[in-house]
Structure formats: C-alpha cells, structure tokens
Specification:
The chain has 203 residues and is α/β, with parallel strands linked by helices. It has six helices and seven strands. Strands 2-1-3-6-7 form a five-stranded parallel sheet, sandwiched between helices. Strands 4-5 form a two-stranded antiparallel ribbon.
Length: 203
C-alpha cells in the first residue's frame, strides 16, 4: 500500500491557492494510485510548537517533566513518524515575506532530525530520507524567476530544494502559481495552469 502524506501550511483557509493546488495533486494521486492511503496534517490549523532550548535539551537526553513540553515532544515525534512512513509527500507552501510560513518551518524542524533523516560521517552529511517523492504546491504573490528583478528575493523554493536535498530527497517537484496578488485575471490564470499541471501528474 502506498502512503501519501499531505501537508498544508497556508493561513488563508479556503481562499488559499496553495491549498487548492495541493488538494488537486492529492486528488490526482487518488486517481492513479490503487490502494493509496492518505494522512493529512494542517500545520496552520494545528501548528507544531517552534523549537526551544528545552526541546533541544530533551533531544540530547534531558528528562521531560512539564506536561505541556511532553505533549509538544509527542506531537513532533508523530510528525516525524508520518514523514518517515510516507512514500509520497505533498506540501502546500505559500510564500510569506519571501520565504515559507513559520508553521511549515516548525514542521521541517521536526523532520530534519540527525540520525533519522540525515547523519554526519567522515565525508560530511548524508541524507537518510531518500526514496520519497515530494511534490510542492507553491503560490507566490509576484514573479520571482531567475530572469526577474525580484529573483534574489526568492527564498521559498530555494530553501525547500536545499533542505530536502540535505535529507536525501532527490525526487522533488514544484507546481507553482505565480503572480496571484497582481490581479484577479492573473490569479485565475496562474491557478488554472497549476491545477492543469496537477491533473496531469503521472503515478
């Protein structure tokens, strides 16, 4: 049975472009993947706590006494286990202030774990999470391509490419809806193009 993990991070609810595109991607996989099992996590509606010094200390063996911290550690462990179990990961990632939402960063901090998804050896870091297919639905208010004046402000796709490469993911795909804040016509066209791409994904 193929396991798919679906992550959404937009704070805009039904008005979110990235949520519409990520849902279309998952819908496409339901069509083309027999026996698909989907796990859904909305990190905007139910955010993971941001890392603290206490969390780091616990990772190095410090005892856990505070019930709130125990719950936070358990939630982080559950997020990691969901990711490790997934064959396919679909992420809705809108650009906020030139990068990813802080809620998505908190999730990444729970899956980028030494000894679980990466390790350090004599030849440097080694990714341990290879073999997964990761598709990211991106929405950006403007245009940030390499040939645009805003190219140096793009820290969403560049960051996600870096972090997933670091943990060993080489099968990484982006479906982008760009310029969604330029105007209603541009938003509609960008969304339509992204949905069409999502609908044509191969198994």
């Amino acid at each position: 049975m193929t396991q798919l993990l679906h992550i959404d991070s937009s704070v805009l609810g039904p008005n979110s472009v990235s949520r519409q595109v990520s849902a279309a991607i998952v819908g496409r996989f339901r069509q083309v993947t027999p026996g698909l099992e989907v796990t859904y996590r909305d990190v905007a509606a139910e955010p993971l706590s941001h890392l603290s010094g206490t969390h780091v200390a616990i990772a190095y063996g410090a005892p856990v006494e505070d019930p709130t911290v125990k719950a936070e550690v358990a939630a982080g462990q559950a997020a990691l286990e969901e990711f490790l179990a997934a064959d396919i990961v679909v992420i809705g990632a809108p650009m906020y202030n030139f990068s990813i939402p802080s809620q998505l960063k908190a999730w990444i901090d729970r899956i980028a774990v030494r000894g679980k998804t990466f390790s350090y050896g004599p030849n440097g870091p080694q990714g341990l999470a290879g073999g997964k297919r990761v598709i990211i639905a991106v929405s950006r208010g403007g245009h940030y391509g390499a040939d645009t004046p805003m190219a140096t402000f793009e820290h969403l796709e560049t960051y996600l490419r870096s972090v997933f490469s670091f943990i060993g993911v080489t099968d990484l795909e982006f479906i982008a809806a760009d310029g969604v804040q330029i105007g209603a016509e541009q938003r509609e066209q960008a969304l339509a193009n992204a949905l069409q791409t999502a609908g044509g994904l191969a198994a």
